[in-house]
């Protein structure tokens, strides 16, 4: 590309006016800025999806729409109908062209001023990106690099190129042919537009998935879950009874969060069934959905660890789908597969009994976050996630434990993964110093699908004392607990144990997470001053 005036004119009369040259240089620099930023954003979105990295153009458009007064929105819809988005993008394109030409013309007077103007524009786009939902600072990287590339292009092409023309100010005609200049300018703009297009193609499914997710209205259910008053004890520092989606622990083998456009999603039921069934997104959403509160639990959780969380899940019972397919005799396992190849082997019974194992589409009333399995995941009460909670689920193979294995089984984890009864102290923290007097020792306890009936606290190896429990929501969810401890000065050890509804207290026997879940009493030391 040659915009720097280095080429000499074929004919002396074939010169370009300074204004035209300025406009073309501005357009070319603008094309570099937008092209680089959009291309990088496309790759970034493909790689991270969930954390956004939106296209800067989309972000500016979105921010503009969000700030459009209602009368203008009404006018736009009334005038352009369903073409309102196309009109918006056309408006952005025209604005960009005008601004780019303006910057190029400004460069005729002051190169520094033009650079500052370009930087300001990039700054406005950055503000738009940051204003989008779930924006992260890293989403700014494509724009930052695009801006730097554009400024480099602007300073290079707007400056006199060689010693022979260095004395020629930009306000005088430059010795460059119209053909070369126009050709280079067009080439820069075409390359920029191509980069934008490639960025869109690369982001492809991710962007389609993100848009579908944004547009997805979570189905209403006949009987919404009501969190009982008193389930939360309201003690500072204790894990919220319902964990907000953004804080929910995440465990999976996916290096890159799978990008699933629900329009192309389907779930196949295969294996030992009377008839194979394929369920698509629209069909699933038309099914009667229900809500369940379930505490999800990772087998890798250490004693006292936080790889668990409680949420309200919206979905359709898996047993209904299995009924449609007709499970054949002899099957004892459902091997669920995700779009990225992860598999989980779940006892058939856990998916057909009355425990409401769900094909989940929403978490706490919101579409699933991409990292938690959008568009569809499994949630099975009472089992660790590695044998049940397949995210981005695409196949259910009805089979046997003899014939198939879930992903983690050949890697040293048990084929069966019922959740162990466990409890955790959230406050005070291990090693904390607290003031003498009444100290709230508090946390959560879980024994999914059996239920928690008691939590007991032991100070310095003394007697086990009953803690007060938060209200019981469901046997599938954890319970909060608190013990008002009369703390006296000195160093103390506090241990806890939960009791499940079978009457069985949590075992003191220490076990590591592998192969089937950690055990042992969570114990902390505190200093009372
Ligand atoms: N596709 C897929 N689904 C998966 C996993 C995975 O690696 N890939 N990990 C499972 C494990 S081990 C757990 S504990 C839960 C965690 O779900 P969360 O990340 O939504 O909390 O997802 C389960 N579902
Ligand atoms: Mo897990």
Automatic annotation (TrEMBL):
Which key words tag this protein in UniProt?
Answer: Membrane, Transmembrane, Transmembrane helix
One Pfam family from the record: Oxidored_molyb
> InterPro entries, alphabetically?
Ig_E-set, OxRdtase_Mopterin-bd_dom, OxRdtase_Mopterin-bd_sf
**What stretches pass through the bilayer?**
20-41, 86-108, 114-131, 143-168, 180-203
Q: Where in the numbering of this chain does the Oxidoreductase molybdopterin-binding domain appear?
A: 256-408
* Chain spans, region Disordered: 503-529
Gene3D superfamilies of this UniProt entry?
Answer: 2.60.40.650, Oxidoreductase, molybdopterin-binding domain
Please name the PANTHER family in this protein's record.
Answer: SULFITE OXIDASE, MITOCHONDRIAL, SULFITE REDUCTASE
Q: Could you identify this protein by its name?
A: Molybdopterin-dependent oxidoreductase
Provenance organism: Arsenicicoccus bolidensis
Taxonomic path: Bacteria, Bacillati, Actinomycetota, Actinomycetes, Micrococcales
